[in-house]
Write a structure and sequence with these properties.
This protein is of the alpha/beta class and about 325 residues long. Helices cover about 30% and strands about 20% of the residues. It is built from 8 helices and 12 strands. A 7-stranded parallel beta sheet has the order 2-5-6-7-8-9-12, with helices on one face. A 3-stranded mixed beta sheet has the order 1-4-3, covered by helices on one side. Strands 10-11 form a two-stranded antiparallel ribbon. α2 links the parallel β5 and β6. α6 crosses α8. The protein is globular. The relative contact order is 0.13.
């Protein structure tokens, strides 16, 4: 059972993120911690992580946001929800704070962007229907298999619910992309899994998406191993190599570069068969080409993915370490 603890926010609501693709946007974290309980989630290594099955909800977010907007000389163009938690967690009190905050921004003419694996409910659709051109949505989904999803992200929304939400939003005119992250090697990056997922994404209106593979840090290594054991996979069959992420993201362990390149090429090729243009997340793969994942709909030139780009000979060196935020 998840415990929601309420707390007053003491610092600013609109804060910068060290994640490279979010550095130009203000962001809002509705909670500390996240109820989804994803075993691979990087926030488990944060110093302020409240612990398993515990979420801290900032109940004065709306009031503080209104004050900051009133004091600001210029309004932000766009605000991202929520880099260290999901804005649409199952707990209704969390979604209420999210939606009231989003409404305040939308009514002020500010765009809202979000990444979710959560529960986009009727209240969400009612709000977004009034502001379709001000909403940028990215949905995290790596499988249509509910058993696999439950093993790796136990309290996130079922995959079918996420795909249905994509379809409803795209029909409203909301910009939606898919995020295949993290892909579990030999579990969710397989031909059968992706050949089931990609046509459903395409049918829901997805034409673009980003992808990256599982990475591991000490704080959640045991959970990842447990998920593999539950799924009958072989965690120990892979060579987990040290990987330096993009600037300000810190290091972790991932598949070695050649393995990632080969697998990413397959992901891109399968997506292309169904009209879904997949690009690599370059925050986590700085040794891969491309503009990145555009997590918040950042303005970038379109990039047509080419599986041939991901041969080992095209992979460049690594970027320096930085303080971790992914």
């Amino acid at each position: 059972m998840v415990t929601v603890e309420t707390r007053l926010r003491r610092g600013k609501v609109l804060t910068p993120s060290a994640i490279p693709c979010l550095q130009r946007l203000p962001t809002i974290n509705i909670t500390l911690g996240c109820a989804h309980g994803c075993g691979y989630c990087y926030i488990q290594g944060y110093a302020n992580y409240p612990g398993v099955d515990r979420v801290v909800l900032f109940v004065n977010t709306l009031e503080a946001l209104r004050e900051e907007l009133a004091r600001a000389r210029t309004k932000p163009r766009r605000v991202f929800f929520s880099p260290s938690s999901d804005p649409f967690q199952y707990e209704p009190e969390v979604r209420e704070v999210t939606l009231r905050s989003m409404r305040t921004l939308l009514e002020a003419g500010v765009e809202v962007a979000f990444l979710t694996k959560g529960f986009v409910t009727s209240e969400c659709f009612e709000l977004f229907r009034d502001y379709p051109k001000q909403v940028i949505a990215q949905f995290g989904v790596t499988t249509t298999n509910q058993s696999v999803s439950r093993a790796i992200e136990p309290r996130a929304a079922p995959p079918r619910m996420r795909i249905d939400a994509i379809q409803k939003l795209t029909r409203m005119g909301v910009s939606c992309t898919a995020r295949l992250d993290p892909l579990f090697p030999d579990v969710t990056d397989t031909e059968p899994n992706l050949s089931e997922l990609m046509p459903q994404l395409s049918a829901a209106g997805i034409v673009r998406g980003s992808a990256s593979f599982l990475f591991i840090r000490g704080a959640f290594r045991a959970k990842v191993k447990s998920a593999y054991a539950e799924l009958g996979g072989g965690f120990g069959a892979f060579r987990w190599a040290a990987q330096t992420f993009s600037e300000n993201c810190g290091p972790a362990e991932m598949l070695d570069r050649d393995s990632r390149a080969e697998r990413m090429s397959r992901v891109i090729a399968i997506g292309a068969r169904f009209g879904v243009n997949i690009s690599a997340c370059t925050c986590k793969n700085p040794d891969f080409p491309g503009p990145g994942c555009a997590i918040a709909g950042n303005t970038l030139e379109p990039w047509q993915s080419d599986p041939g780009l991901f041969g080992p000979e095209q992979l460049s060196g690594r970027l320096p370490d930085g303080p971790g935020r992914i």
